[in-house]
């Protein structure tokens, strides 16, 4: 009986979300919307989405769109990027510890995903502790995808105040087809433990959003480079409070909006900037659904969102 009531409750929530969508959405199928790939902290069972029409007010899309099967069979930190052929590519953290790679799947729409694979990017490092938060970036100039992630290799770098098994650096690989990839290389060593990097192209330069994961800090900073592969320079002072992570940036008009997981307070936050030097806390201007977790915000089309709602509502009803 309780299961039936839960399903009825979820169905009511899904219908309410559809009502909000119908009220707010534009009529043009190709109109711009924003999607946010995410997951549920407790379950970590697969891919979910949130959506927004303005980048400031977000709601959940109902339903579990892809159940995790690769590697450790969990899904955290899902990152989505569309290639020049409009194919959607998805990478994610598939284990807390033990796996030497990340999960990968592809799709021609946001719903029907390919078979999931574990891409063992750290198989050459037998002592690697983890492969966390892979992030996708498409480099238009070199026509390739860059995937960067955080790993700890005990003893590789000075530990300072960090635990030997929790001292991260950023690594990367490149690929054009996700079938073959370049050898893994070091992406960023700022002489401190660093995770959760996202590459952003801002006019003629590139900006790197990063989490300083050291015990005194655990907050967000930025760095700059001419190339999306660095070298990254001029690392800023923190622009978020402590216990924040998972930055993801959207360009909205002349502004950049950086959303982040304020895990210390179990909320979501946001900062607005035009130059990545001066940041304004705009958390009070935002609306985030309860439970939103570390993922990637990106531009999509109304028809993609419509399809997500159609399939998501069916999943909840069933």
Q: Can you identify the CATH class?
A: Mainly Beta
Q: How many separate domains?
A: 1
CATH topology: Tachylectin-2, Chain A
Assigned CATH superfamily:
Glycosyl hydrolase domain, family 43
CATH architecture classification: 5 Propeller
Q: What overall geometry do the principal axes of the alpha carbons give?
A: globular
Question: Based on helices, strands and strand pairing, what is the structural class?
Answer: mainly beta
Determine the fraction of residues in helical runs and give it as a percent range: 10-25%
Q: How do the helices and strands follow one another from N- to C-terminus?
A: HEEEEEEEEEEEEEEEEEEEH
Low-confidence stretches: 1-23
Number of strands: 19
What is the overall number of helices?
Answer: 2
First-residue to last-residue Cα separation: 15 Å
């Amino acid at each position: 009986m309780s299961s039936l009531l839960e399903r009825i409750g979820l169905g009511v929530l899904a219908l309410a979300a559809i009502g909000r969508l119908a009220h707010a959405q534009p009529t043009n199928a190709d109109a711009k919307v924003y999607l946010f790939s995410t997951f549920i902290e407790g379950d970590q069972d697969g891919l979910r989405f949130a959506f927004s029409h303005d980048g400031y007010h977000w709601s959940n899309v109902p339903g579990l769109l892809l159940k995790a099967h690769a590697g450790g069979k969990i899904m955290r930190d899902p990152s989505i990027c569309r290639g020049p052929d409009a194919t959607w590519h998805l990478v994610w953290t598939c284990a807390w510890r033990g796996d030497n790679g990340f999960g990968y799947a592809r799709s021609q729409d946001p719903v029907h995903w390919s078979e999931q694979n574990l891409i063992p990017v750290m198989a050459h490092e037998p002592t690697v502790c983890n492969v966390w938060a892979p992030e996708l970036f498409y480099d238009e100039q070199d026509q390739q995808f860059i995937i960067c992630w955080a790993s700890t290799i005990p003893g590789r770098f000075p530990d300072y105040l960090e635990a030997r098994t929790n001292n991260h650096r950023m690594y990367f690989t490149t690929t054009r087809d996700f079938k073959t990839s370049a050898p893994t290389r070091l992406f960023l060593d700022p002489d401190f433990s660093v995770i959760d990097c996202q590459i952003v192209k801002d006019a003629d330069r590139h900006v790197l959003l990063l989490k300083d994961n050291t015990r005194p800090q655990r907050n967000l900073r930025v760095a700059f480079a001419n190339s999306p592969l660095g070298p990254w320079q001029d690392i800023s002072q923190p622009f978020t409070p402590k216990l924040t992570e998972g930055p993801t940036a959207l360009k909205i008009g002349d502004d950049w909006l950086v959303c982040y997981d304020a895990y210390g307070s179990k909320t979501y936050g946001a900062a607005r900037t035009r130059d990545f030097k001066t940041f304004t806390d705009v958390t009070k201007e935002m609306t985030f659904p309860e439970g939103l977790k570390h993922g990637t915000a990106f531009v999509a089309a109304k028809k993609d969102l419509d399809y997500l709602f159609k399939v998501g509502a069916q999943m909840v009803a069933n």
